[in-house]
Write a structure and sequence with these properties.
Elements lengths: L1 H25 L10 E8 L3 E9 L8 E6 L3 E9 L6 E7 L5 E11 L4 E4 L1 H7 E13 L3 E15 L7 H5 L6 H23 L8 H22 L26 H12 L3 H16 L8 E3 L5 E3 L2 H4 L10 H20 L3 E7 L22 H12 L4 E2 L2 H7 L15 H18 L11 E8 L3 H5 L8 E8 L6 E3 L11 E7 L7 E6 L7 H4 L5 E6 L5 H7 L3 E7 L18
Parallel strand pairs: 12-13, 12-20, 18-19, 18-20
Antiparallel strand pairs: 1-4, 1-6, 2-3, 2-5, 5-9, 6-7, 6-9, 8-9, 10-11, 14-15, 16-17, 17-19
Length: 578
């Protein structure tokens, strides 16, 4: 039995595992085609960012956009785009970006796993149509399709849908024969090698030391084996996409080890469990964060985001210059006047970050350099110098703190009670232009305490099931007046998350459009009570198409304080003064 185990069973198991892992590895290299991609061949007269959008459920969303940079004018540029997976693929859209200039498109190819679909310039001319700021869309025989931009938002859209191509392009070969033969050859070599080497131990006594070595090797390989047979289907709760397995390419062999290391660190077996264990003991023993670059642990176990892409300049290190304040004033007044000319009331609402409402819970290592934030500075400046006011609920939220918490302990967001306070501040501004629109009284709601684990900061530390939020919900005592209905579809609006639409049937209340982020989720249940038709668009960009299609009476532009610098950018081309 010992001879059978050492000479045949163990070598066979080892060779099968080696062959399996090698085959899985080989089919991830450039020996086979792994991903469906789109290749665009063109000449460019200038540097630019050429963007590719895949329509999803009749909407062009930013998350389904891929961009390739052209650094300088050049001929026969090959741009290779990954085609994003969407559930309801539709048309494709090509944007020259914000650049004015000329591009000569020579070929477009969908590169499938087993075959390609190509379009010549003549076919592109027939099957695409120009939109917005396209000055020239002309077929030049023998050369290509000339696309010339002269505005802020040029693009061309296909007349066909990508959906019929999906199955053909994504069909994989059942077996990749060359990787299979290579893997079998190496597996046979492993079997032969171990058969000879382990055969030498047949007549030797196996001691406890041997068992410990085998156990140690098993523990080392267990995460890899677990990952291979039970791969992660979620992103471990982190607010980011985990690294995908890189495709091996000879041309990028120097970068491959680093990319593979990043992929393995994100995806090895038991990563989630080990991350939770690590975070739990750091929190309990040292009141410290396992990911200080993303989350800081404050006093009383309050969590704060330290990711500047989320919270911006939360330490108030830099305020606006006078010139920047005047630029923002011009942009907001330009937008305000554009809406006013169409009979629309326009409101700008900026939500404060958590650290400016609860600075007393910040850890001692985080020092705020200035007491005033950019939001406070801008709101004060606009109050003194402009007819456009910034709606800022900061003071209302701070004043409400002695009675109840208004932000989640383990999340970046305010809770529903904080949302109601922000809602009242917004409705106060709206009431000044329409006395008939008043906030729903708080007496119509009752407070309900719920314990939830859906908190973004604790989730980043893999502690969402350890650190629970005590969440105060305000639930209406009687049935809400509105209902959620199917949202509208827009062709040009940059939408980050699905649009939400609420309506009150047979109501004479006005109509509203809200450009918003996740913070408005906490206001939406209350705000929908005040409008017969309310469209909530998760977007950083105002859209002329939305306003022309919906013709609302009220527009709210809401975003988080961390994105306040966006107000320095020009308004969309349709809103800018000529």
């Amino acid at each position: 039995m010992k001879s059978l185990l050492l000479k045949y069973i163990l070598p066979f198991i080892a060779s099968v595992l080696v062959g399996y892992f090698l085959y899985c590895s080989f089919i991830q290299t450039d020996l086979v085609r792994k991903e469906v991609k789109m290749e665009l061949i063109l000449d460019a007269d200038q540097a630019s960012d050429v963007q590719f959008f895949m329509e999803d459920n009749k909407q062009f969303k930013v998350e389904n956009m891929r961009s390739m940079k052209i650094d300088a004018p050049a001929k026969n540029i090959r741009l290779l785009y990954e085609i994003p997976f969407v559930y309801n693929p539709g048309r494709i859209r090509l944007d020259p970006g914000l650049t004015r200039g000329k591009w000569l498109v020579k070929k477009l190819v969908f590169k499938g796993l087993a075959g390609d679909i190509s379009y010549s310039p003549e076919e592109l001319y027939e099957k695409f149509k120009p939109e917005n700021d396209i000055k020239t869309f002309q077929l030049i025989p023998g050369e290509g399709l000339l696309v010339e931009s002269n505005g802020h938002d040029p693009f061309i859209i296909s007349k066909f849908s990508y959906a019929p191509f999906f199955i053909f392009l994504n069909t994989k070969p059942r077996i990749y024969y060359f990787p299979l033969l290579l893997s079998l050859s190496l597996a046979f070599f492993v079997f032969y090698f171990l058969n000879k080497r382990l055969g030498a131990f047949v007549d030797k006594e196996i001691t406890t030391d041997h068992y410990f070595v085998i156990l140690f090797l098993g523990l080392l390989t267990l995460p890899l084996i677990w990952k291979s047979f039970f791969p992660q289907t979620a992103n471990s709760g982190e607010n980011r996409s985990l690294q995908e397995k890189p495709v091996f390419s000879i041309s990028e062999i120097v970068k491959y080890p680093k990319r593979f290391n990043s992929y393995f660190e994100d995806n090895f077996g038991f990563r989630k469990e080990l991350s939770t264990l690590n975070s739990y003991y750091k929190l309990k023993l040292f009141n410290a964060s396992s990911k200080p670059e993303l989350v800081a642990v404050g006093k009383n176990s309050w969590l704060f985001s330290t990711d500047q892409s989320v919270v911006g300049d939360y330490q108030n290190r830099k305020l606006f210059s006078l010139g920047e304040l005047q630029t923002i004033q011009y942009n907001l007044e330009e937008a305000y006047d554009w809406y006013k000319a169409r009979g629309i009331h326009f409101f700008v609402m900026i939500m404060p970050v958590k650290s400016n409402i609860y600075p007393e819970y910040l850890p001692d290592m985080i020092k705020r350099e200035k007491d005033s934030s950019k939001l406070q500075q801008l709101a004060g400046f606009m109050e003194k110098n402009s007819h456009v006011k910034i709606i800022d609920a900061s003071l209302d939220l701070i004043n409400a703190k002695p009675a109840a918490e208004v932000y989640y302990q383990h999340d970046i967001h305010m809770n529903f009670q904080g949302g109601f306070i922000a809602y009242k501040r917004l409705m106060k501004a709206i009431n000044e232009v329409n006395p008939d629109l008043k906030a729903v009284p708080e007496s119509d709601y009752e407070k309900v305490l719920k314990h939830i684990h859906n908190a973004d900061l604790s989730r980043q530390l893999s502690l969402e099931h350890v650190l629970l939020n005590d969440e105060w919900h305000l639930e209406k005592k009687k049935e809400v007046a509105y209902e959620t209905v199917d949202p509208p579809v827009y062709e040009t609006a940059s939408i980050l998350q699905p649009t939400v639409r609420t309506q009150i049937k047979n109501s004479k209340l006005p109509k509203a459009v809200v450009y918003r982020d996740s913070f408005f989720n906490l206001i939406m249940p209350y705000f929908s009570e005040n409008f017969s038709d309310c469209i909530y668009i998760w977007s950083k960009e105002m859209s002329v198409e939305v306003i022309d299609k919906e013709t609302p009476g009220y527009v709210v532009y809401e975003f988080l304080e961390s994105g306040i610098d966006k107000l320095l950018e020009d308004n969309p081309s349709g809103i800018r003064k000529k």
